[in-house]
Amino acid sequence: MNPPLLDRPLRVLRACLHLLVAGLLGLAAGAAVVQSAAHAGAVVASAAVLGVVYAAGAALSRVGRTAGATAVWLAALDATWLVLLALTPAGVYLAFPLFFLQLHLLPMRPGLLAVAATTLAAVAGFGWHQGSLTFAAVIGPALGAAVAVGTVLGYQALYRESQDRARLIDELTATRGELAAAERTAGTLAERERLAREIHDTLAQGLTSIQLLLRAAERALPQRPDTAAEHVTLARTAAQDNLAEARRFVHALAPPDLDDRSPATALHRLCATTTAQSGLPVAFDRNGPPAELPAPVEIAILRIAQSALANAVQHARASRVEVTLSYMDDGVALDIVDDGIGFDPAALPAPGNAGGYGLAAMRARARALGATLSVESAPGEGTAVAVSFSEGAP
């Protein structure tokens, strides 16, 4: 099968070859009639038979596709050509299209042998008609054979190059498809990780707070209904905040805590809410004059603080937590320090296990914005989470 790039040139070459054969057959027959050759009738008949044999091969689909049919057709064509060559010296010109057919339809080695045999037959026939073997009788068919061989070899080289190029294009297309699939997979995984962080930092923590408040209300309900009512009120407020977070999450808007507020104000409110809901004293302090920060940095500061405070409430058994937001000349830093039981950072569970998303989500948020996040802790020594955003962070 030929590459699509070579289909049209090949059709043109075949048409030219058909016209060449027809023209040379007409020349041989016409020359015999005009010159009133002794065997003019036989020459015309031989040329007609050769034309019929050639046309039959061009019309039969098996010729060129099966080795047996191709060999039989070429043998019949060569035999009728030899008859014509024996009758008229003009038959030597038909050797040229025969060269192309033999090289095109036969494998390279048999094709070259057939061309050599046809060349010898052409030289011998032309010399026999001339009565002597001259230099012109030898060089003419030899040059024709050389031109045919060079042309076919050039076409085959072009064919191989076209095949290689088509194969390369197919490989590039397949690679581009694989790359697109990999990019889609990477995008899906990144989006899944983002959703996991958002759910952990917002909805999951809000639902945990509601659960703790309702559990406290349940314990206080028989003897202290006023206290239970306060817990229920806080749970309802937390539910409202969580609903706002869910709506923001769906519509991909800014966190409600940051609406019309600075990060310092949002953190102050977060600390107060955490204290009210959990009973854990959380102090907030701001250092330096406030500066305008990019929205992604403000969101990351609030989310990291939410996650760190949730860890302190649920796991640290701390008696106090301090949150500090520091505005500096080259950026902003957030520190969350508790005096709890601490832990071994190297022994954290992998994300996906219980409690495995908190620090991983904080690190991912910081890494996405080019920030540095460090966690210092040891059993019995409390925990310090520090994240630093440099100036110019997105």
Main attributes?
alpha+beta; five-stranded mixed beta sheet; about 400 residues
Extended strand count: 5
Profile the largest sheet. Answer: 5 strands, mixed
Radius of gyration: 46 Å
Q: List SSEs in N-to-C order.
A: HHHHHHHHEHEEHEE
CATH architecture of the domain at 262-394: 2-Layer Sandwich
Spatial strand arrangement across the major sheet: 1-2-3-5-4
Helix segment tally: 10
CATH superfamily membership of the domain at 262-394: Histidine kinase-like ATPase, C-terminal domain
Q: What is the arithmetic mean of pLDDT?
A: 82
Q: What would the principal axes of the Cα set say about the shape?
A: rod-shaped
CATH class of the domain at 262-394: Alpha Beta
First and last CA, distance = 56 Å
Beta-sheet strand percentage? 5-15%
Helical proportion, percent range: 55-70%
Structural class: alpha+beta
Might you state the CATH topology name of the domain at 262-394? Heat Shock Protein 90
Poorly predicted regions: none
